[in-house]
Specification:
- With 297 residues, the protein is α/β, with parallel strands linked by helices.
- It has a domain at 2-159 and 187-217 and 267-281: NAD(P)-binding Rossmann-like Domain (Rossmann fold, 3-Layer(aba) Sandwich), CATH 3.40.50.720.
- The protein is built from 9 helices and 12 strands.
- The strands form 4 sheets. It has a 6-stranded parallel beta sheet, with helices on both faces.
- Helix 5 crosses helix 7.
- It is globular.
- Bound molecules: NADP nicotinamide-adenine-dinucleotide phosphate (NAP).
Length: 297
């Protein structure tokens, strides 16, 4: 397989470089490379990718700054919607596969039921709307595709919620974290490994193309997630100033943000697990593994 990977320096893209390597040649592109692979310029991007004649395009690049997207809707649209559409057209021309990632933010987060792939969408902000349009453009193109919707991604590279909590817990004796948003923290490493399994199967059986939810199993709130992170750090001898049990749970309204977040980010992985015969490990496993890596245990 000749694979072109976009967003190779992001949380998921970094892990994909590792996970896709056994499948074939991986050409990892970055926006600062030469020539540039800039998703803010869909036509130039498409020409560049076309010239590389991939059999598989994996797009892990995205405009992921959820709040900033509210004030940069045009840029978020180019990166999250127009470029995936342009990549899908290249995939059609080359008869290539397109692997693309999307998000729980395509849903409105109402109720408490887990969404499946056919559930009604209803994004609450610019990020979710542009990601949904990206998905729709990929599906409408008719290219052979795999769209993996995930949530609450953590990795060993870049900033993430767990790292922010570790820093704050070392500095402060009191922490407040929202407890009315529920979802599944999902490791970039897990998502990358799942991608490799799914791609390999779909490569052999193109009828498996489609949209799938790919998240770790179980669920928690940001508050529950923070408690696990801080207690893990404490029990492994790291500097933690906040006393045990002193992380205060507050509603989302306590932290107003430019973008509204879905309260219910539960995604059902039944389709993924049944179609590809996969198990999704509990979210705690991935978080503890990531903590061990970043804290050097
Ligand atoms: N993070 C989450 O919690 C989350 C949740 C649900 C779904 N997802 C989805 O999962 C996928 C991977 O997300 P992630 O967490 O790995 O994101 P990330 O760590 O923010 O990485 C995004 C990558 O996209 C690249 N990028 C941004 N703008 C670009 C542009 N104009 N041209 C080229 N590259 C550009 C970034 O490049 P630089 O390194 O140069 O900035 C970075 O490598 C995305 O589709 C995202 O929407 C993420």
């Amino acid at each position: 397989m000749r694979i072109v990977l976009l967003g190779s320096q992001g949380q998921v893209g970094w892990e994909l470089q590792r996970a896709l390597a056994p499948l074939g040649e991986v050409i990892a592109l970055t926006r600062n490379g030469e020539p540039t692979a800039d998703l803010a310029q869909p036509r130039a991007l498409a020409a560049h990718v076309r010239s590389l004649a991939p059999q598989v395009i994996v797009n892990a690049a995205a405009y992921t700054a959820v709040d900033k997207a509210e004030s940069e809707p045009a840029l978020a649209h180019e990166i999250n919607a127009a470029s995936p559409g342009a990549l899908a057209e290249v995939a059609v021309e080359l008869d290539a596969w397109l692997v693309h990632y999307s998000t729980d933010y395509v849903f409105d987060g109402s109720g408490s039921a887990a969404r499946d792939e056919d559930s009604r969408t209803g994004p609450l902000g610019v990020y979710g709307r542009t990601k949904l349009e990206g998905e729709e453009r990929v599906r409408a193109s008719g290219c052979r595709h795999l769209i993996l919707r995930t949530s609450w991604v953590h990795g060993t590279r870049g900033g993430n919620f767990a790292r922010t909590m570790l820093r704050l817990a070392a500095e402060r004796d009191r922490l407040t974290v929202v407890d009315d948003q529920v979802g599944a923290p999902t490791g970039a490493d897990l998502l990358a490994d799942v991608t490799a399994h799914v791609l390999r199967s779909a490569w052999r059986r193109p009828s498996l193309a489609g949209t799938y939810h790919a998240v770790a199993s179980g669920e928690t709130s940001w508050h529950g997630y923070a408690c696990l992170v801080v207690e893990w750090a404490r029990s492994h001898g790291h500097a933690v100033k906040v006393p045990a049990g002193a992380i205060e749970a507050v509603p989302s309204t306590a932290f107003p943000t430019p973008a509204r977040r879905p309260l219910n980010s539960r995604l059902s992985t039944n389709r993924l697990r049944q179609t590809f015969d996969l198990e999704m490990p509990p979210w705690q496993h991935g978080v503890e593994r990531m903590l061990a890596e970043v804290l050097g245990q």
